[in-house]
Amino acid sequence: MNEVWKKPPVSLETYQGMVGKVIGVSSWHLVDQGRIDTYADVIEDHQFIHVDLERSKQETAFGTTIAHGFLTMSLMSIMSYEVMPVVEGTAMGVNYGFDKLRFISPVRSGKRVRGRFVLAEASLRKPKELLSRTAVTVEIEGEEKPALVADWLGLIYFN
User: Fold this and answer.
1) Tell me, what CATH number does 140's domain have?
2) pLDDT per position as a tens digit, 143-157
3) Cβ neighbours of residue 64 under 8 Å, at least 6 residues apart?
């Protein structure tokens, strides 16, 4: 079971009261070459900028290999589990997509990233369905610019 479901739940009213506030900042997550290589295998994207260190050093301005943007994006799930509250009566939550997603800076192999989550919207669409919009910034340790910014949409279904 994911740790998010072990947190004490908050009321819908409390959750909606968090709109406009920083919900939390996740711990740092290492993006090492092993993780990048595994992701490359899963999605069958072995472009040299991700998997060939020597060529990346010679032919890019990155100085090393970099993570796939979608790998960085996918880490938002585990980051969100660390900080986002569960609303009382939640049966399940599903990814609804993004209104905005921009990859700002590459994540170089060996760097750590973390997510900063601001609840931007929490509105009932139906009696048992809540639309949650979260503004997420994935920060890179030691760097000024973030890896990405996103307006992430989720649907929460209630029992």
Assistant:
1) 3.10.129.10
2) 999 999 999 999 999
3) 53, 56, 57, 108, 109, 110
